[in-house]
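User: Some background: our group keeps a shared notebook of sequences we're curious about, and every so often someone picks one and asks for a predicted structure to add to the entry. Today it's my turn. The entry only has the sequence so far, pasted here. Could you supply the structure so I can complete it?
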Amino acid sequence: MHSRSGAVRWCCAQRDKALFGAITCSCSIGRLLVRRLQRQAKEVLGQTASEYRGARCRSSTHLRVATAEPSLTPRAAEVPALPGRGARGSAAAAAAPGGLAVRPAMGEAGPGPKEAPEEDEAAAVGVRDGRAGPRGVVRVLKRNVKRNGSRSCLNRSRFSSRERDWLREDVGRGCVYVYGGDSVAAASSDLRLVLCTVDTPASEICDGEDKKNLFVQLHGDLVRRLEPTEKPLWILYDYLAGLGFDDPVRMQEEAANSDLSCMIRFYSEKPCQVEQLDRILLSGIYNVRKGKTQLHKWAERLVILCGTCLIVSSVKDSHTGKMHILPLVGGKVEEMKRRQYTLAFTSAGAQAQTYHVSFETLAECQRWHRQASTVVSMRLSMVDLSCYSLEEVPEHLFYSQDITYLNLRHNFMRSSGAGSLESLCRFSQLKSLNLSHNRLGEFPVSLCEISTLTELNMSCNGLYHLPSQIGKLLNLQSFWLDGNFLTSLPEELGSLQQLSCLGLSFNNFCELPAICEKLTILDKIAMAGNLLENLDLTVLNRMNHVKSVDLRLNNLKRAAADTLEGNKSVTYMDLRDNQLTDLDLSSLGSLEQLHCERNKLKELTLSGFSLRALYANNNCLTSVSVYPVPGQLTCLELAHNQMQCVPDWACEAKKLEILDMSYNLLVELPSRILSSLSLRKLTVGHNNLQSLPPLLEHIPMEVLDLQHNLLTKLPETLFVKALNLRHLNASANSLESLPSACTGEESLSMLQLLYLTNNNLTDQCIPVLVGHPNLRILHLANNNLQAFPASKLSKLERLEELNLSGNKLKTIPTTVANCKLLHTLIAHSNDISIFPEILHLPHIQLVDLSCNELNEILIPEALPAALQELDLTGNTNLVLEHKTLDIFSHITTLKIDAKPSLTTDSALTSTFWSHGVAEMAGQRNKLCLSSLALGSFAEGMEAVYGMFDGDKNEELPRLLQCTMADVLLEEVQQSDTMFMSNTFLVSHRKLGMAGQKLGSSAVLCYIHHDMADPASPFSLTVANVGTCQAVLCRSGKPLLLSKVFSLEQCTEEAKRIKEQKAIITEDNKVNGVTCCTRMLGCTYLHPWILPKPHVSSIPLTVQDELLLLGNKALWEHLSYTEAVSAVRHLHDPLAAAKKLCTLAQSYGCQDNVGAMVVYLNISEDNCTCEMHGLSLPGPGGFSSTTAKTATPSSSSGIASEFGSELSASEASSEVGSTASDEHNAVGLDGSLLPRQERRCSLHPLLPSSIFQRQPSSATFSSNQSDNGLDSDDEQPVEGVMTNGSKVEVEVDIHCCKGNGLEFEPPALEYSSSAPGVEDDSGLVLIIQRQNSINSTAAHGGVKEKCELQKSPSTCCLYGKKLSNGSIVPLEESLNLIEVATEAPKKKTGYFAAPSQMEPEDQFVVPPDLEEEVKEQMKQHQENGADQEQKEESAVALTEEFDTAL
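Assistant: Of course. Here's the predicted structure to add to the notebook entry:
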């Protein structure tokens, strides 16, 4: 029996070896090896063929595995695949409970399961008695798995056709990448591709891999061991569904992307980096000498550095107790100078011991020295093992008996077993233990035996209840249970009389735990993020020991007391983000600080005995009652309410220092407030103040914010009485003058920051500014300044930032050179023609002179070293020489206008939309914003605009700027209804490792035709995550198209975050990182932070004027209405974007601010359809309908267009002619047949067939003489400039047709004495000169219909018209239709042909010559008809094409 079993194992091993080896062999050799080994197996086992097939049928474990090795296989032996779970094949799946499909091996495609040949049976997995054997045979295919992010991963060479068919049969099937143990760079041989189903457990994959366990890693962070019953593919699909993917087929495709491993990755061995291993445990065998003297000899010992001690032991007896433990906390580690690579470890204390350890290499010595130095520098015996994916405590750590603080946060500690939580009681001096984020599920009872604990953190462990043994921790002082599912506390917790801090935030409590009344030392109740709806103040009255109450983010709707008994213990209360409508806390006589922001409060009543600070922003308050007058009040914030006046008790508060009443309904300001002797900061912006009371006494005011009011003047004595005033913001008012800063000759003003943007100030206010010699920042943008006197500017010597944009200045005074400290000059949107002398300033960093009239720049030989940004865009007359550009090339950011593109796309995009972008860094050192602006997207008649805000990182915005448009194009080509959402999700994946720790807000706008109806008008689809927003101006009103995903502004997202047990800190940030709930990146905060965007789509109409994009900083300081009204009347989108950023900075923004303005011109005025433009020629020539002048086209520099499309017979020449518009455009009688009208992108033609109209330029010659005289005229024609050279006009030709590419004979050629360009209706043909054309040879040949339909260039042409003008390459192709068919596939979009002889020529027929041209046109047609009748009998019309003579 044993020999038989050995023979079975030998045959199976040989059979598998042959199968694996056959992969790299040819198919015939592989089949021979398989058949030979099958015969050997039958002989050894004594089985017949039928018995062998029966054993195969009993197999239940089927696994597909592919390894990433470079050698490729022609084909693999076909093995019938088992259908998996799903709608298709569910019955067959029941017969295969394992859920794994068989991996096709080498050979031909085999028959179905019932007809499997013998050579395919070798791929079966061995079984015993109908059950899976102890180890399944795993087939390994050696294929190269390329890591790319393409959507068509299921079509890549990594899968054979049989595998692809197997995957597509059921969406419950898929692939899982399994990596080796090297987490830094997984070798290709260690990467395996496992094909399985969602029901496949990890145990089967481990059996196929010959591994004990399978591990999963999220976001490149922690690595968790999978339980045998867990299903890897289900985990993968569940993760993708959590990201936002809804389509199961799409999830199957996404799972095939190897770059998904940056977010989720499976390992066959637990990876561990060397740095982590060093921090946990360092060990090795080295030469060791004990003591400081040389009496002891060097001996080989085992040395271990773990925890807080150094362990030295004998090599043989290291586990028999012969160890020497050296505590290192408070000791020292030094390098020995006499011996190379040697360290001396010395313990602390009077009886210090020293061990010398000699290492072999310098790198090893440095590793030990670095880690030991960290240990000896600690004051406390603390060991930090957080975020190491530990399942057990290292055994050598227990030798460090002096450990008092142990941090095991973010691990996967086990509750039982060796080194588990049960072993922690071995630390006899342990006082603090952190076990948060360990997925425990249950509270380990063994922890209750550690009686020395004073601090225990069990947050975020999924706990539902606490054991009764918790009462044994009598020394416990701080107990953190945040982020669990607790609904009650055990009574035994009341015995912990030393407990002073209890954290219960983000649990499921519905009321205050009664057990807190027994905890007499407890001074703080932290219950934020629970489910409380009512706050019974009577319960708080009974807890006379509680001083601080945190009830943020609950569902509180009522807070009241049943009795009149007062509470004298509570001093701090936080009720933010609840649903309170009225609040009466007058019973809390000792209350010092109250937070009640973001509720629905209308009335608020408080006790003023001890009140020091009140924060009640973002409510609906109309009145606030505080009695008695709060004599200790120092801070009062009532912004974003409905207050119509300042409360009287606030005017009487003698110690009030900060008052914020912005965004209210104030109409007047009490004189007692402005004259307060204690008030230092007053913010009353965004009200309806029309005047301020006069100042009679000196006041200590330092900051005064008066922006967005109705002020026409400031108090005359403001700068005289407020000598301490350092910051004044009076922007967005109606100021026409400024008060004087001094009464005598000398000014005592301390003003440093002055913001006066968006007022009505004139040059008369400039002399007043001289009275503020300490000014550092001065903003005078968007006023009525005509000039800035040079003598006045020279006196502002301490000026550092000057903003004069949006005025009517023509020059910047040369005395600006006296401002030696100036580092920022912003003067865009003026009429400045001379570049100011600012490049001599030593500290100048930013110069913005965009949107001016600059024509030249005088620069010094060397630029200042501090200059980082120079913006010269929008200066149309400015031409920079190469020498100047070379000097400017050293500037970090140089912005100049690009040369105008002479392409068709630019002409089309400028017709319907144009954009301007502005980005300003503000007070920060770097710009963490990026913008995406593609006015010509896809095939030209679409546009994409986006903005990305990385907050504090600049890497992700730049990555998104470079990749997101490509992702969108790929998604749109897939015709996916969820293309916008999938664009964000795929971009999130493509961020890779950069997106693990960093995040970015994003907004993306896509202007396009409806996907289902290409003939529809333009639509706008907007998607966003984070705080970037898009606003559409429709009929002068803002229309918000995006959604702000933040905790403060989105209650749905805040509720989701709470349910997922994230910790929201007091500054309203998820885990203290970000206030956004949806972002691209930050994958380590999954599932709290998601990349799924908000998507909205709206059809564009004539009423749509512009589109605004901005980041958080812009919309925090500008309302949607103000932003729209500020720029809708400007003509330059760049100046508009600049203005928005300037306004935001003047209104108080100090962060990065970005704005994008897209002007929309979706109107009938831009229509180029024949039904809206020129009339169509009828059988008798031109129709009598009144025609408009055609819109010039800039295709390849041509500004010419035939409004009416002439047939070849009407516009031919002795040089060549063009193909007709229809296949039968001209009949035998020479008349024009009806054809489809020409349509524009505003009114696209319904695609009844595969049809494309491609404008082309044909070459003609005229009969004009060299002197410009017509053949019948004696004087030169006015407005006509020609010398007989070729003139180019634009006509339309067909590319293809739905029923195949057919060609008909064109019209007959004839000569004309005049270029017929006008009919009876006064049709005007404008032919302007063409610049030089770079011709590119066109590839001849016409593709078949099926190939044409599959090509990406033709798929996007259905229902769209591209007007890329072109010239026919007559010398390379005799068929215009062939050339036109290949035209859309050209990168340049143009045909290749000889250019004109004289490109400077112009041939223009002015309107006053309409009658003459009309007569010539009639003669032209009559002569043509006669000529055709003469040639009809002699010339056959079959297979005739227009070619060059």
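Suggested note for the entry: The chain has a mean pLDDT of 75. The radius of gyration is 41 Å.
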